[in-house]
Design brief:
The chain is mainly beta and 158 residues long. The chain is 9% helix and 49% strand.
Length: 158
Amino acid sequence: MMEQAQHENVIYQVVGFKLGGEEFVLDILKVQEIIRLVEITPVPNAPLFVEGVINLRGKVIPVISLRKRFGFNEKEKDSQTRIIVLEIENKLVGFVVDLVTEVLRLPSSMVEPPPPLISRIGSEYLKGVGKLEDRLLIILDADKILNFEEKKAIEKSF
């Protein structure tokens, strides 16, 4: 997403969401759908940040708490809570977020490489930081939210 940006002004389409007081975005091409919170069935021996699984039109998909994944404090789920369903390495995975804000168009000229440490999240999860008017948007790299070992641990849990 960032590589060709240096040469031309590309417009990225991203889905915005909030976690704690911070605003994050994901590449819209990775997002399959956004759903309201449904009942999540816990799975024994799954990694701590895995909430469990949901049945999405006959497909069982793992659901991960991004709050737990990134070390944020727990928060009571409410009517704003959403599950963003992403495709990662040809598998569907749900990510619980506090609230989905909007679909945004982000010019590459407004994107900078990630600083070494932003909030409590390590830069290995980030593609960059976008500036839109007075907002700072943390651009997550969907493929790097889970590392290889975590993906294997999740697969073993199901």
